[in-house]
Amino acid sequence: MRRVAPIAAPAAALLALAACTPAGTDDDPSSSASAGAGGGAGGETITIGYIAPATGTLTGFTDGDPYMLSVVREQFADGITIDGTTYAVEIIDRDSGSDAAKAGELAQELITEEGVDLLMATSTPETVNPVVAQCEAHGTPCLTANAPWQAVVFGGGFGPDKPLEWTHHFFFGIEGFGDVDPLAWDQVDTNKKVGVLWPNDSDGGAFRDPDTGYTPLVEAHGYTVVDPGAYENGTADFTSIIQTFKDEGVEIISGIPIPPDFVTFWTQAAQQGFEPKVATVGKALFFPTTVPSIPDDLGEGLAFATWWGPTFPYESSFDGTTPQEWIDDFSASPEGEGLVWNQATPLNGALFEVAKVGLEASGDPFDKEALVAAFDDINMMTLGGQIDFTSGPFPGIATIPTAMGQWEKTDDGEWEWVVVDAGTVPDLPVDRPLELLEW
Fold first, then answer.
1. What residues does 81 pair with on adjacent strands?
2. Rounded CA gap, 38 and 47, in Å?
3. Cα-Cα-Cα-Cα dihedral of 365, 370, 371, 375, to 10°?
4. What burial letters (b/e) apply to 175-189, b meaning 16+ CB within 10 Å?
5. pLDDT tens for residues 48-93?
């Protein structure tokens, strides 16, 4: 059996996903200084801004960023050559603190004060959407990742009559859950009743949409959705939701809660005698620190949509690095000490891969319209997968495929996940079928 993500179960795991020294802070020696003349000021330096949640509840998306940024800065150390001219590259990374308002403030600062030529953001609509809003308002080229595309487009107030003009975003959408979760559920015997956990935020609103959300997708696969209503992030008592699931006979759990909220919900579900057969949960279960933090080994058998791992058939456009090679290098690096790789980091790095190709194709890195047009034509392989802006579901959107992983604990006390369904990922090996939860 192929082992995917072994991690030692900590004695006191942090529910909020502890991070390394935040990128972009005074304590981060790798962070680029924000002063100096960038391209926006007419110099020969291309200035790239990067906003990510290095601290707060969303740090699971970024705990590999210090290593990733060191690799990217090495790639750009000699600059990039565009139409015979070599330009230096300055990367200014900033920590949103997992706060949407701060993400917007940082975006405005990088655009209006630092004069960035390209602004990038990653990790959930809470980070991405405020940055996109600032870029669209100021006419600044923007690249974003790691947020369901519907939550970015429709959640950001865009649509057929209001397209994204300056932004390109890549990630899977709600279909990456709604069309892939049922492939795993179909492997086991249930009553096909699915209880959903939708928070009252941008993600939850997109998933709850009756036309473009999660419910119509899973219902097309023959399942019935039980939606107990939106709950607030940080909810301490899920009793009413749990009772609704019990009353409705729910045997499958799905949703996109933040890690601390899912730990609370799952612990209370066990205490209150709610024992579903299957749980396929996004966001909270993406990262290796959540499952060990659930008491009494209640994380055993939890499943989630996955988009990256050591056996995925991808490679970096920088140097051909494969997922397994990246994992090995990260694990051996000073930045990776005490951490386990996570699947968000390669997509964060892919932002810079796409940026390099787009800048080179623009002909002039300081011509904003030309840079945006160059991104329109990108169809390339990255460490995070194939990024294709030429055939997306919406202008400026590229989607990536997803599979299904399931967490298990080894005899040595380590947590790992294995692939239980290849989903929409071509040529991905499957380790074993989905197993029912054991209570």
1. 86
2. 5
3. -150
4. bbbbbbbbbbbeeee
5. 999 999 999 899 899 999 999 999 999 999 999 999 999 999 999 9
Q: For the chain, give the percent of residues with pLDDT over 90.
A: 85
Residue 236 · residue 264 · CB < 8 Å: yes
Q: What is the 3-state secondary structure (H, E, C) of 292-306?
A: HHCHHHCCCCCEEEE
User: CA-to-CA distance for 170 and 387, rounded, in angstroms?
Assistant: 7
Q: Is pLDDT above 80 for 3?
A: no
Beta-carbon contacts of 335 under 8 Å, excluding residues fewer than 6 positions away, are 20, 64, 66, 67, 70
301 CB-near residues (< 8 Å, 6+ apart):
279, 406, 407, 408, 435, 436, 437, 438
Distance CA 295, CA 400 (A): 33
Distance CA 324, CA 315 (A): 10
CA distances from 93 to 53, 68, 114, 148, 414 (A): 10, 12, 12, 22, 33
Nearest to 68 by CA among 333, 360, 382, 387: 333
Q: Tokens standing for 307?
A: 């988009």
Over residues 286-320, the pLDDT tens digits come to 888 889 999 999 999 999 999 999 999 999 999 99
Kindly tell me the burial class for residue 115, based on how many C-beta atoms sit within 10 Å of its own C-beta (0-12, 13-18, 19 or more).
middle
Q: Tell me the two tokens of residue 39.
A: 């391209």
CB 48 within 8 A of CB 89: yes
Amino acid identity, position 180: V
**In b/e form, how buried is each residue of 261-300, taking b as 16+ CB within 10 angstroms?**
bbbbbbbbbbeeebebbbbbbbbbbbbbbbbbbbeeebbb
Return the pLDDT at 200. 96
Structure tokens at 324: 């397994």
H/E run at residue 253: strand 252-255
Q: Which residue has the tokens 């002909």?
A: 363
Radius of gyration of the chain (CA): 21
- Name, in order, each residue with C-beta under 8 angstroms of 391's C-beta and a sequence gap of 6 or more: 379
